[in-house]
# Entry
Amino acid sequence: MVLLLLVLTGVQLWQTRDVTSGPAPELAVSVLGADGKLVTTTLSAWRALHPAEPVAIHFWAEWCPICRTEENSITRLSRDWPVLTVAMQSGGADQVRATLRQRELPWQAVIDPSGDITRAHGFHAVPSFLVVDAKGQIRTPAVGYQTEMGMRLRLWWVKLTS
# Structure
């Protein structure tokens, strides 16, 4: 059991080796709201809507089968915590809007058709997840399937230790 835990920890550390540490990248992004409207903003401006709270950023793709298994968890998580999703290489706003509607996902989604926003955060695969604390610092990055409880614990931990 300990060996398995060490292997999983090693894999996670390797997968997140390029994730930026310190302040979250400040990029202009197009965010598709749950209402279907497209707004241009920045991560810090979006975070300002949730003062003194950690926020979750979930990187996903329409074509990713593992991402689909996390959809209900992300939806439930977003009812209690601020969650911004990043639709990596899933097409333009119209395609992402259609995917969200078809799957009945009430998410706010950054449109990342080329994967540049995902790579700017240091991720090379989806699904990926990180928490940005109230001071704008990246915390607890993870690649691969995450349980809802695991995501909640990451947010809670960041809130507790910030």
